[in-house]
Amino acid sequence: MQRIILFDGVCNFCNSSVQFIIKRDPKGHFKFASLQGEIGQQLLNQHGLNSKMDSFVLIEDDNIFFESTAVLRVCRKLKGGWKLLAGLFIVPSPLRNSIYKIIAKNRYKWFGKKDSCMLPRPEWRNRFLD
């Protein structure tokens, strides 16, 4: 199964989240592409999504997941206790997504923003699609 995470490449919180995932995904379940990059834009277009998409997106084969659902699906594959967060699926998605949206709306204010997308470490380069 192919799993691709699309993330905001200029967001400090999003970049830290990608590094967090990589460190807890030793089997390499996930590949990454920034929403701003060429491949990220191609994937959005290929799946009929708005090129201005501003959400954490998980593509699993031909299935698309957004917001808190995408986050929890990723947590299920991480090593350690992070799998337990998938138990939050019992919380209705409108409630989960309202919390997600508060964080997403304030992420630049709380965590900052870069002028350009991060460059991955050389040992992680094969995990990035663009």
Automatic annotation (TrEMBL):
Pfam families: DCC1-like. It comes from the Bacteria. Coiled coil: none annotated. InterPro entries: DCC1-like, DCC_oxidoreductase. GO terms for molecular function: protein-disulfide reductase activity. This is Thiol-disulfide oxidoreductase. It comes from Neobacillus mesonae.
